[in-house]
Write a structure and sequence with these properties.
Length: about 260
């Protein structure tokens, strides 16, 4: 049953997506909406195909690289602090206060400051992406590392397991589903962070293309970049879900 349902999911997704684009195309053409307000999907796809190799390919690689760098740095910082909080609970108050402060900061306002401080290269984009990734990853990891069956923990301690063994054989396997759940949320957030930072100032990337399109009211150019970002986000989510099914197989039993 599970395999048949899983096989139907891509077809159902494609059907829903196709019907949405068709309704968009028909609605725009029937209402006569100007292209500078809302372009038809056919116009957007024509722009995307015509300018993919000349503009979008390099920009996509830049933005995805910045997003993945921020995802890696934000996740690494969250993992380190989650482990510290788990084994030294007194750190929780200070660490979580800083994490909430970072989460509460208006990153759209911070991005220009980071651009001034770090320049127009990849550094401010990676920092913004990492800041967006950090808090949800930290919260999920702390919850996963702590939400253990007390009986299993007592069993490990009865066998005189040290902290490393407890972490390796009990906490990490139990926390793995929480980690992948956080990745599914933070991977798209990293893309958003990179694009927001590129809007504040960049020499390349999809955010720069979108900003130029916005200033020139070239909505087909902007929507083409949005289509690419959506596709990359869906691809990252699917890749993470596939890795989760292979790595955390005990949490995804087939029925």
């Amino acid at each position: 049953m599970a395999r048949s349902q899983l096989a139907l999911n891509p077809w159902l997704t494609a059907l829903v997506f196709g019907l949405t684009l068709l309704a968009w195309e028909v609605g725009v053409r029937w209402a006569g909406v100007p292209v500078y307000l809302l372009p038809a999907p056919s116009v957007v796809l024509h722009t995307l195909i015509a300018r993919f190799t000349s503009d979008y390919l390099a920009a996509t690689l830049i933005t995805v690289g910045e997003a993945l760098g921020g995802l890696a740095i934000g996740s690494a910082a969250a993992i380190a602090l989650a482990l510290g909080i788990t084994f030294w609970p007194r750190l929780e108050g200070g660490v979580m206060s800083i994490a909430i402060l970072i989460k509460s900061m208006p990153l759209a306002a911070i991005a220009p400051l980071l651009t001034i401080w770090l320049g127009f290269g990849w550094q401010p984009k990676v920092v913004i992406a990492a800041l967006l990734v950090f808090f949800p990853m930290l919260v999920n990891l702390v919850a996963g590392l702590r939400a253990l069956d007390p009986a299993k923990l007592e069993h490990m301690r009865a066998w005189h397991a040290n902290r490393w063994q407890e972490l390796r054989y009990l906490r990490v396997p139990h926390c793995a589903p929480y980690f992948f759940a956080a990745l599914k949320v933070t991977a798209p957030l990293a893309l958003i962070g990179a694009v927001v930072a590129e809007w504040a100032g960049a020499s390349g990337g999809l955010g720069r293309i979108m900003w130029l399109a916005y200033t020139n009211l070239n909505l087909p150019l902007m929507f083409a970049a949005i289509f690419i970002l959506s596709g990359v986000g869906i691809g990252l989510y699917g890749l993470i879900a596939a890795l989760e099914r292979r790595i955390v197989f005990w949490a995804n039993p087939e029925v």
